[in-house]
Amino acid sequence: SLFSIHKYWQILARWQERHLIVETGKGLLLLFLSFFCTNTFTFTWKIYVNTEFHYDENERFHVLLLLSIVVQLSSIIWLRCARQCQLYFGIQHIDMFMSGAIIFQLVTVYGIFAGFPQLPFGLKIIEELIPYLSLQSFSKSMFEAYGRTWYMSIIPAGYDAQFFTLYQNVVGIGHSWVGSLWVDFIFQENGSAFVMNIILFLFVMLI
Q1: Burial state string for 33-51 with b = 16 or more CB within 10 A and e = fewer than 16
Q2: How far is 108 from 197, CA to CA, in rounded Å?
Q3: Do the Cβ atoms of 111 and 192 come closer than 8 Å?
């Protein structure tokens, strides 16, 4: 939008604000990676259900709908629990954010077992996806709820509008089309959820 372009020009035209971009750049990169990973994960499990489980179109629709409801309800429940824990124990926003990264890492490790058909576990049955996605919803809710508040806390006073514009664009790109493009590329190359989970595991290590 014109407003975003105007704010970018303000940031780039002033040395002090360019310097602040460098200082807050790590925070933006952290947010981009987290939203990129959650977006990629969402497309991965939906493609996995469509390709690995043999349902007709009607059954597939209901299974995907059920799992999507599980994700949304789990996110709400996890967020309420997280807020209570934060208030009770006085946990910082960045710590809540990083706890989401840890859980996401564990979830991707379990997803890697899907590449070993000889194992009796590792997303071999549809019932495994319910706790699998419920745990991943914890990460999703932590990233979305605490990423913004943490980033706003590291923005220097008086620069809220400029840096919030950067936040909106970075999160929007990471949470919308970049993840879907990456999933499409990986599945076209090898069609493997196993490879995708390894890649996500490595990406989350950057966080």
Answers
A1: bbbbbbbbbbbbbebbbee
A2: 5
A3: no
Q: Which two tokens stand for residue 138?
A: 């914890």
Listed in sequence order, the residues at least 6 apart from 121 whose beta carbon sits closer than 8 Å to its beta carbon are 113, 128
pLDDT digits (tens, 9 = 90+) for 150-182: 888 887 777 777 677 777 777 766 566 676 677
User: Which residue has 């946990």 as its token pair?
Assistant: 91
Tokens of 192: 């493997």
Residue type, 162: Q
Structure tokens at 111: 């997803």
Using alpha carbons, select from 138, 153, 155, 156 the residue that is nearest to residue 97.
Answer: 138
Residues 6 or more apart in contact with residue 118 via CB below 8 angstroms: none
Q: Which helix (H) or strand (E) holds 133?
A: helix 129-154
CA 126 → CA 60, 65, 130, 171, distances in Å?
11, 13, 8, 31
> What average pLDDT does the segment 49-66 reach?
88
